[in-house]
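Practice problem: predict the structure.
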Amino acid sequence: MSSHPEPKPKRPPGFWAYLGLIVGVMVIGGLAGAGAAMFEDLPGAVGTVATVALLSATFAVTFALCVHWWKRIDEAAREAHKWAWWWGGSGGMAVGGVLLVAMALQADDAPLPAKLGTSPADLFAAGIMTIILFQLAGYLLAWAGWWLRHR
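Answer:
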């Protein structure tokens, strides 16, 4: 018989923990965006280096928060997220990719909205954001489907 008491089962994070995480990530993102906007006005390579350093630090902090969150969730939640990201994210990327290719092939007949920008950098960023949004939409649908099927 061991003298060690049994470990307490993990209690799932509550509403306030999730709300705190969301608000915290939004604050970190807002500060990083504001800092990047200020640094882009710095002359020469100084602005680029400062922006890269700030965004790298932001990604590192966000990644550490994600690892902390991942270690706290149970196995079913982990499996739901992995499955949803693989199938939903991949499906969303495929749909978004087909849409972007179709739009690029029809660029002469149906020009892109001016809001997307006109420079190659603007169009590149708009394409990346489009793929990310389609991946996120696919992930959310697959995640909801996983939980509906396994509950």
